[in-house]
Amino acid sequence: MESLFIVLEGIDKAGKTTQAERLKQYLINQGNSAIISSEPTEGVIGQLIRKAMQNQVFVMKDKTKFDQQMAYLFAADRHYHLYNEVDGVYKLIKQDRYHVIATRYYFSSLAYNCNNQEEFNFVYGLNKCFPNPDLVIYLDIPLDIALSRLENSLCKEIYETEEKLQQVKDNYQQIFQSYDGEILKIDGKDSIEQIHQQITAYLEKYFS
After folding, report:
1. CATH number of the domain enclosing 77
2. CB neighbours of 104 closer than 8 A, spacing ≥ 6?
């Protein structure tokens, strides 16, 4: 299997991190090198994004301007994520021969930072030059399950509200209806093991 760039997407608490960890271990057990490299990154811009999301630094009070600000920051961090020469995605894939698994990519910017078509066009413009991953895995869970899981979260982020997550969920549906890249859509209500088995079966069928 050639080295792949695999992205997991979904609303908060969809199970992306859990499945990323299981997928990494599966690939390693198959004799491959694999790493999780998610967004936001641990770089300078990524750290600023994390602080802004947790209200630890000053951000725009106007929600529209805040979304625009975050879209700019995420695009800059995404460029670093892909192309930095130390642990960038394409350095890891092409030079170090790793499978790279990311929880979140430009689809998240389109889902979280857009409230209407005008804003979608703006965010799309910031991200249109970023290449598609080899595979997107979209974990689709009902909103009530996500909210229930968030109740136990120790550090709540600015987007983790019922109204916002419903909008994000709707945005994801529209994004992936027209997406022409390789995508696996999974019912997030399935068990952790069932979801993992669906992912590995898909990889074995289409990428072996």
Report:
1. 3.40.50.300
2. 7, 8, 9, 16, 38, 39
pTM, to two decimals:
0.94
The parent domain of residue 149 ranges over 5-206
Tokens of 15: 């199970």
146/167 Cα distance (integer angstroms): 13
Return the minimum-mean-pLDDT range out of 44-53, 93-102, 133-142: 44-53
- H runs (alpha helix) in the chain: 16-29, 44-53, 63-83, 89-94, 106-112, 117-127, 143-150, 162-178, 192-206
**Whole-angstrom distance, CA of residue 8 vs CA of residue 13:** 12
d(CA 161, CA 176): 22
**What is the domain count for the chain?**
1
If residue 185 lies in a helix (H) or strand (E), which one and from where to where? strand 183-187
Burial 155-179 (b: 16+ CB within 10 A, else e): eeeebbeeebbebbbebbeebbeee
